[in-house]
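Hi team,

Filling in the usual template for the complex we talked about on Friday. All components are listed, including any nucleic acid strands or ligand strings, so the model treats them as one assembly.

SUBMITTER: L.P.
PURPOSE: interface mapping
COMPONENTS: two
RESIDUES: 595
SEQUENCES:
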Amino acid sequence: MSNEIRFALYSVKKNIQSSAELRTSFLMNVVGMAINNTAFILLWIYFIKSFGIIGGWTSAEVVALQGFLALAYGVVFCLAQGIRKIPDYVASGAFDRFMLSPKNLLLRVATSSFGASAVGDVVFGVACLIIYGFLIQASLMQILLIVLVVILATLIFLATVIAIFSTSFLWVDSNAVTNGFFELFLTPALFHGGAFQGLTRFIFIFIIPSLLIGTIPVEIVRYLSFDKLALLAGLTIFWLLVSVKLFFKAVRRYESSNFMTFGN
Amino acid sequence: MEQLINIKNLTKKFNFPVKNTSKNWLKNLVRPDTKEVVAVDNISFSVNKGERIAFIGPNGAGKSTTIKMLTGIIFPTSGSIDILGFDPTEDRKKLAYQIGTVFGQRSQLLPNLPITDSLEFFGVMYDLSDQQIKKRSQELIEIFELSSFIDQPVRKLSLGQRMRAEVAVSLIHQPKIILLDEPTIGLDVVAKKSLRDLLMKVNKEDGVTIFLTSHDVGDIESLCDRTIIIDNGQIIKDLATRDLAQTFIFEKYIDLVSDNKFTNFFQLPKGLRYTTKAPNQITVVVDLQQISVKEAIKKLLDIFDVSDIDVYDADMETVIRYIYERDKASQ
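RESULT (copied from the run log):
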């Protein structure tokens, strides 16, 4: 196990070194994503100021929602961007090199690529949550909850993307299909909690776990809701188990193709 | 002789959707017909320690599919594989510690970083200590003569340099077998020879078993002591490379040289045909199933005024082309 972790961390380090070799694109990606996220949040704040509070959500909650989302997205695609590349790896046959590795296949694939632009998301996410903490004058309990739900939201985001991109082995046009699934999962997560009620809320919690990344974490911190915390923890474990199982089952369907590819 | 690879009744079938023109587009979309292709069809063979095997065949014969099943990249439809005592479908990780792989069309190197980083990367992946990585990297840099371009990012290397680096990296963990899929593809003659010499060296000095697929006759002739020919997923020949030409000789070549220039190229008797018609040399192919060499020489000497004559076998490329074409014609 220690060798697996050692290699995974080493792999991330090498990915960062490799990305940093292409300095201009690295910096463009990081700065570009931070600017992009800032523009998005300003749009929401302007929207709320214009139309007032929706479903009890103020600008502070919107900032928190974007913070949780950006942090989960950023951490996952920063350290484990390889998961998002599974459709490309499968279509090109580049997945072969992971099958030849003596390491845990999922960990090896996940850490095979570093998302420079996701660094911008991490920075933006941290900034949002710090601002949120000041806006609500967070208590110590709320600060601890923020840290805990960031971990849970990141894990459930990771589990969901593993599940989504693992289906690459099942489709001929895996890129289009998995990106469609990913949009279906991510887009509802971008809207604040007041937007989904009743059946849609149920669907986006229990069937497509979009609201578990941002909306539910905000509600946990805002209302100090330990019931929802337990629900989030339970669903995180469930999705982690399902996604890992799905990945290793789907890999057996891999049919290597013969396009020319490069390493790592 | 210790057996390292033992394959029994190995089969791989692929299924893919095909458009049925008699169905409408919706039926084709929702319930497409599928077509089954048998890429590898019930093959069996074994490989002994230290052998150098050429696994050859025309495009689409099943070479790469077999090598991918041997390494655990894809799963067989049926049959069994025992490689170094492991079943690649169950023990993929354990097997990976014991084998090295090189895919000519697929680089394993880190494109933006120098070769030393790739050597280190693979060393860490195979759980070598820092000291072991340093020592082994130095050995490989010397053996494969990488030092002149060791600091260049991989993406800036020539194809020949890159392939040497690929093989070096695949040997970092001192594997018992190295499997190579078209390692000399795209290389110039000098780079090809250099790579073959290096592979021969690791086979002779370290006892590494070599299993390679190639379309290059030079790889087979100069490197491999045994040749397995596969076509349409089936093994059609498994024999010592030196016996390959002898087994399949159905043609001989005769060079005729004249002090006076050849001016008339007469119609040749049955069983003979020209391959070269030049003023100073004629080359004729003798179809041994129609005419003997003795008879052919007699008839040619009756026709031409010759000062020198040379009789020789078909080269390896011709032999292999003959085998492929014969197999295609028999279908």
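MY TAKE: Chain B touches chain A through 36 residues (CB under 8 Å). The two ends of chain B are 37 Å apart (CA to CA).

Thanks, L.
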